[in-house]
Amino acid sequence: VQLQASGGGLVQAGGYLRLSCAASGRTFSIHDMGWFRQAPGKEREFVATMYWSSGNTLYSNSVKGRFTISRDNAKNTVLLQMNSLKPEDTAVYYCAAKMGSDSLYMHWGQGTLVTVSS
Length: 118
Fold this sequence. Notes:
Layout: E1 2-6, E2 9-12, E3 17-24, E4 30-38, E5 45-51, E6 57-59, E7 67-72, E8 77-82, E9 91-99, E10 107-108, E11 112-117
């Protein structure tokens, strides 16, 4: 499966952005698809994911209540609505997909930079 991410940018603290990740290829085999992020000097961390068959979602504690992950079924696209952004949300955001046969996220999109100014 191939992933194409878009939607990053520069926003002031308290603002919002929406990221989009379009999947193509063997989308019928996706187990879950979501977002990770990596801030400068830090390790990549999990942000949110959506389970493909159930539509259930999972969020990290740091974004719960501020970010919402959703899916456009017709376009095989996962959206990440990010509200009440904080400077600590500044990072390169990556979308990732885990296939039904995998135990890890093996498919990654290119990163998109989100910068939140104070």
